[in-house]
Design a protein that fits this description.
The complex is a heterodimer of chains A (150) and B (312).
Chain A lengths: L1 H21 L7 E6 L2 E5 L5 E21 L7 E17 L3 E6 L1 H5 L7 H4 L4 E10 L18
Parallel strand pairs in A: 2-6
Antiparallel strand pairs in A: 1-3, 3-4, 3-5, 5-6
Chain B lengths: L1 H18 L36 E12 L9 E12 L3 E4 L2 E8 L3 E9 L12 E7 L5 E4 L17 E3 L8 E11 L2 E10 L7 E8 L2 E3 L2 E12 L1 H8 L18 E13 L4 E11 L2 H4 L8 E12 L1
Antiparallel strand pairs in B: 1-2, 1-16, 2-3, 3-4, 4-5, 5-9, 6-7, 6-8, 9-10, 10-11, 11-13, 12-13, 13-14, 14-15, 15-16
Classes of the chains: A alpha+beta (150), B mainly beta (312).
Amino acid sequence: MRARAFTLAGLLSGLTLLSPLFAQDAPTPVRLIIKPLLCVIDKDATSCAVTFDIRWKSQVPGEFCLNDSVQATPLRCWPRSLAGEMTQERIFAEDFRYWLSLPAAGLSLPAGDSPAAGGERLSEVKIEVLRVGSNDRRRERRTRHVWDVL
Amino acid sequence: MKFLLKVAAFWAAATLSHAQALPAPEATAAPAGEAAPAAEQAVGSPPLILPEERRWRLGAALGYGERSNPLIQSDDIPVVIDLDIAYFGKHWFFDNGDLGLQVLDNSLFTTNIVARVNSDRAFFSKTNTKYVTYTVLSGGFTAPILSAAPGLPPEPITPEEALPLKPPDRSYAVEAGIETLFGGEWGQASLRWFRDVSHTHDGFEVAADYSYRITRGRMTLSPSVGLSYKNAALTDYYWGVQPGEASRTLDAYQARGGLGWEAGMKLNYYLTKKTRVALSANYERLQHSVANSPLVEQDYVLGYFAGLAWQF
């Protein structure tokens, strides 16, 4: 009985911890899909160099612009269409966002990260940078316990 | 204790002599699992100045793994959950059971005074008892009946004839010592010296290890190697059989000091900033005198783990 309860508790806690990986937003009229979403670099590296594969799909045809949180003007606008795709090579060192917006909002968007300032973001994707390691050598020390696997 | 202080003072003096003219590290990187806010810059730009790291490091891994137990009459040690709990203050730190004080830090190395609990004792927590019976052979010698001889039926055994075979109890030892950590683009290395301060075994250990992290895409791969010398007092306390512990099932044995080595590999595949698939394997070759102990049935310790890990 205790073993079953333990197994159930383990499964529940595992699913809870995993839930962010499988979480999906409610269906939206426009969907932006970008790969990769994460860049892993060593602590000594200055930046990530990534070629992004950017695709979007809309349930209704429209004019859409792709923006990012680094520059004020849209990266690209597509005339009335249901889908679009492009690739972009970029070098970056911090987290940033891509999003799709209607042309007017995209063109008037100032630099920054605030949806209120730049108009409605129809679909948004966050690109993250993860630095592994630390310049504090104590954080890199190896403990030699029997249970140490991390 | 005096000896410990002398060694610590010598170690500190030796490292201090190299530390005088060395500048402090310029940049502090964000720890794994945290955002790294910094200005966008191209390759070749000046080094990033990143914000101070969080003092607490909390993580957990859930999966399955084992560490083999080299002791006779023992069970392997299962690893289902591994917690990572560490705190790094300006000078003091706590790292998964180790308590440390940073005494030197410069661009070449970091030296800490550390207190820890000896890890050899952990194997003695997973032991059990086997009962061995003896028969008298012609000539008056005795021999254990572990199984029936081929072609002969086993003799009836009474409980009174059976003798227990169980590894003797061993205590945890609190050890204090000094470690120097090195790191750079070439990898990470450390030198450690620890001595028992709890008068459990009154021995010492000197160890060195090296690891190198390779980052490719979302994956990091970290091979490592290490050497460890444990002196006779430490080795004999845990792996020897004292005359008072010897019996017909367990011969007396005096273990000597010696050199062991280990090699390992850790692989992480990052699913998100905070979540990763973690695989690890480690092989430790026990020193010759430990491997020959009647308490030991394997001359190695093999550990592995596969699971999901979270950095909170």
